């Protein structure tokens, strides 16, 4: 399952810089106000592009800034962004190299159905509840539509938490080194206090998967560490479903062109929208009902897995995966809708989702696992990677591309080098059958079985009554990070071993055996 925390550990530093760019950050009361200059302000760079205390060499900075110019060729410091038409599709605009599927003709109706799904079923907003929407400034028009739906549902207040890819990249390249070791107090206030009150969080994921390519990985690591520690309350409540939250996708031009490089930009965005609608069951005009029916189907697999109560699962495939995973005593599988412990309301944390998941025992994972898809991690693409684990800990890793970024991510804290999630997704899932690589964990994890290193969801019976020390003793991994990566293949075999020694096929040829 993709977690909000996995996204905000990098972006929380970027939200404050939106104020530097003139867009502002949300105050506790929801009003957009300029951020204070301390802690998060980007400072002028020296003429060479190197700042005092900055760890990049001058040549690396200049090369990275050339990458920025390529990503944002029409922008300069004096440019302003017209948000009035952002996110709108011009129906009269001809789509080069792409013919529209007739079943997708009512585009705006499906978009509104999608928005309704996110508010009414994603976070399942209740009358009198506050909603925080975290999104890029490019999505302002879509965010306004979400806010209207939220107020229609009885929301007491919509709080906006803005970010911006270009400003985020600029900050990681040019800000003073010291700012990456602190998390601004207003971020801590916004995230932790809204989580404690039970406000709903809607995170709209649209980031360019390669936005931070060329950025010093040490800056990213330090930023994540600072944010993770400051937002411990938010992390704890998110992991234990202490407030309703939902991560959903909205296309950006950069992301769409990465997925559909042969299409014109408008056509690529439109095409990505259509894939999102399909994955979210928004093609019939009854998205909420269709999504609930899908959640009921996932529950059938959950019930079977919980009845078997496996002690071990053994993964094998032709890529080289040969991994034995011990499950902690008292574990349970879950999937589909989740229950908020604050108010008992059901919500859908990831839209889309095709997974059922649980946690491995912290020290019970042994063998080698090979990733089957690239991973978008901290604004970089990691390719061709594998892990070797002994007694639960990653003792060896290799990546063809992005190995340093991956290694830093597994060393963020002690728990980052242990697994925290195991999820089962059949190879014939709709997202897998699309044949697309989305370069987005939210989508790619739902095309494939996957693991995550870092924080575990406490899928242990009675976990709500246990403190962190007791949870750790039960085999629950703890970390400030949570990174999903894909391992499913068409020939994946998973064999379960019960407590009485029976071996039961769980996956055969990449799909459920039951």
- Our estimate of the beta-strand percent is 15-25%
- Give the uncertain stretches in residue-range form: 16-58, 71-104
- Distinct helical segment count: 15
Helix content: 25-40%
Whole-Å distance between the termini? 22 Å
Structural category is: alpha+beta
Strand segment tally: 23
Average pLDDT figure: 85
How many strands, what sense, and barrel or not for the largest sheet?
9 strands, antiparallel
> Which of globular, elongated, flat, extended, rod-shaped describes the shape?
globular
Radius of gyration computed on alpha carbons: 22 Å
Give a structural overview.
The chain has 514 residues and is α+β, with helices and mostly antiparallel strands. The protein has a domain of 193 residues. It contains 15 helices and 23 strands. Strands 7, 8, 14, 15, 16, 17, 21, 22 and 23 form a nine-stranded antiparallel beta sheet that branches. A five-stranded parallel beta sheet has the order 4-3-5-6-12, with helices on both faces. A hairpin with a 5-residue loop joins strand 7 and strand 8. Helix 1 crosses helix 7, helix 2 packs antiparallel against helix 5 and helix 3 crosses helix 4. The radius of gyration is 22 Å and the shape is globular. About 15% of the residues have low confidence.
């Amino acid at each position: 399952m993709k977690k909000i925390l996995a996204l905000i550990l990098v972006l929380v530093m970027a939200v404050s810089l939106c104020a530097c760019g003139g867009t502002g950050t949300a105050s506790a009361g929801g009003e957009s106000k300029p951020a204070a200059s301390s802690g998060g302000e980007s400072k002028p760079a020296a003429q060479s592009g190197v700042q005092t205390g900055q760890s990049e060499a001058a040549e690396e900075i200049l090369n990275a800034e050339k990458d920025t110019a390529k990503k944002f060729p029409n922008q300069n410091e004096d440019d302003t962004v017209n948000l009035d038409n952002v996110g709108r599709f011009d129906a009269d605009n001809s789509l080069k190299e792409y013919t529209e599927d007739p079943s997708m003709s009512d585009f705006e109706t499906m978009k509104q159905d999608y928005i309704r799904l996110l508010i009414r079923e994603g976070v399942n907003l209740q009358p009198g509840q506050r909603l925080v929407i975290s999104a890029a400034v490019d999505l302002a028009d879509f965010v306004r539509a979400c806010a209207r739906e939220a107020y229609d549902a009885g929301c007491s207040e919509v709080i906006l938490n803005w970010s911006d890819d270009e400003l985020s990249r600029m900050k990681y390249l040019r800000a003073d080194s010291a700012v990456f070791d602190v998390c601004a107090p207003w971020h801590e206030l916004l995230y932790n206090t809204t989580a404690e009150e039970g406000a709903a969080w809607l995170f709209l994921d649209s980031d360019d998967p390669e936005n931070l390519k060329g950025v010093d990985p040490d800056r990213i690591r330090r930023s994540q560490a600072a944010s993770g520690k400051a937002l411990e309350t938010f992390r704890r409540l998110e992991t234990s479903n202490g407030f309703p939250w939902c991560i959903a996708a909205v296309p950006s031009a950069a992301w769409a062109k990465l997925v559909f490089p042969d299409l014109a930009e408008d056509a690529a965005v439109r095409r990505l929208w259509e894939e999102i609608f399909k994955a979210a069951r928004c093609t019939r005009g009854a998205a909420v009902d269709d999504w609930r029916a899908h959640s009921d189907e996932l529950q059938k697999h959950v019930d079977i897995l919980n009845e078997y109560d496996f002690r071990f699962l053994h993964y094998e495939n032709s890529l080289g995966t040969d991994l034995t995973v011990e499950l902690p005593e008292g574990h349970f599988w879950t999937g589909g809708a989740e229950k908020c412990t604050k108010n008992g309301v059901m919500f859908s944390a990831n839209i889309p989702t095709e997974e059922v998941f649980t946690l491995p025992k912290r020290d019970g994972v042994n063998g080698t696992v090979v990733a089957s898809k690239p991973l978008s991690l901290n604004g970089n693409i990691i390719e061709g990677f594998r892990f070797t684990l002994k007694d639960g800990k990653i003792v060896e890793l290799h990546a063809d591309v992005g190995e340093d970024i991956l290694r830093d991510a597994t060393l963020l804290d002690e728990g980052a080098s242990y697994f925290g999630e195991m999820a089962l997704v059949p190879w014939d899932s709709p997202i897998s059958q699309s044949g697309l690589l989305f370069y987005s964990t939210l989508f790619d994890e739902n095309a494939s079985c996957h693991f995550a290193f870092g924080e575990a969801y406490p899928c242990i019976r009675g976990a709500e009554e246990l403190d962190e020390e007791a949870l750790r003793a039960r085999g629950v991994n703890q970390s400030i990070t949570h990174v999903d990566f894909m391992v499913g293949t068409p020939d994946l075999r998973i064999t379960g071993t019960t407590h009485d020694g029976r071996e039961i096929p769980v996956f055969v040829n990449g799909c459920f055996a039951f």
